[in-house]
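Let's see one such:

===
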Amino acid sequence: MPPAFTGHGIYLLNPLMGLVWLLIGLLIAFYVYSDSSKRYPRGSLAPLIWTVAVVFGGLLVLLLYLLVRPPERRD
């Protein structure tokens, strides 16, 4: 049996799972940027700052954003 199929799991799936987690992270970052762009005034750096913070801070910063974000603006 090839080495990729020995042990407790199929090791060929590890790179695929990495891509799945990367895609999930990008989708979350896109959501935070688009949502915060609707909630903060045009030209504000807040959407970019929140997006970078979520990318580097992970789930904890995402939960913080969801708790402290301002109400949605109705233009």
In short: The chain has one domain: 3-68. The CA atoms of residues 7 and 36 lie 45 Å apart.
